[in-house]
Structure formats: structure tokens, C-alpha cells
Amino acid sequence: MRRTVEQNRSFVKDTTTQAVINSDRKAYIAYMKRVREKQKDNDKLRDIIRDVNSLKSEMYEIKELLLKVVK
């Protein structure tokens, strides 16, 4: 059985498990949108880090080749 929480009507309490459940669908959708956006930002950051590391590696190779040419 579920009862509405008095402090916030968007929450209900399951009387058998004592769990408090958010029943506000709009809030859940907004939360999931924020989660997806954060994941996209993390993916972009990971891609940028991968690109920077690749450039660092290539610069190191170029430096080594230049040093061999100079010798």
C-alpha cells in the first residue's frame, strides 16, 4: 500500500518496504535529461583527452626524427 508524503505531494511512501518514491514524472524526465547531457559532456572530454594524448605522441615522434636528422 502507498501513502502520500505530507511534506511533498510528489512523493509517496510504500508502507510495506518503507521506501519513499518520487512519483513526479516531469522531474524524472528532467533528471534523465541532465544525466544524458552529463554523459555527453564526459564523452566529449574523453575524446579531447584522447586527441591530446595522440598529438603528444606524434610530437614526440617528430622530435625524435628531428634529433636523428640533426645528428
Summarize the structure.
With 71 residues, the protein is of the alpha+beta class. It is built from one helix and three strands.
Number of helices: 1
**Beta-sheet strand percentage?**
5-15%
Q: Mean pLDDT, nearest integer?
A: 91
Structural Rg: 27 Å
Low-confidence stretches: none
State the separation between the terminal residues, measured CA to CA: 83 Å
Major sheet description: 3 strands, antiparallel
Number of strands: 3
Structural class of the secondary elements? Answer: alpha+beta
Helical fraction equals: 55-70%
Output the strand order for the largest sheet.
1-2-3
N-to-C SSE series?
Answer: EEEH
- Shape, per Cα inertia axes: rod-shaped
How would you sum up this structure, described in words?
This protein is α+β, with helices and mostly antiparallel strands and 71 residues long. The protein has a domain of 47 residues. 65% of the residues lie in helices and 14% in strands. The protein contains one helix and three strands; from the N terminus they run E-E-E-H. It has a three-stranded antiparallel β-sheet with strand order 1-2-3, with no helix packed on it. The longest helix has 46 residues. The N and C termini lie far apart (83 Å). The model has no long low-confidence stretch (mean pLDDT 91).
Please tag this protein with its features.
71 residues, alpha+beta, 1 helix
Write the layout of secondary structure elements.
Blueprint: E1 2-4, E2 11-14, E3 20-22, H1 25-70
Antiparallel strand pairs: 1-2, 2-3
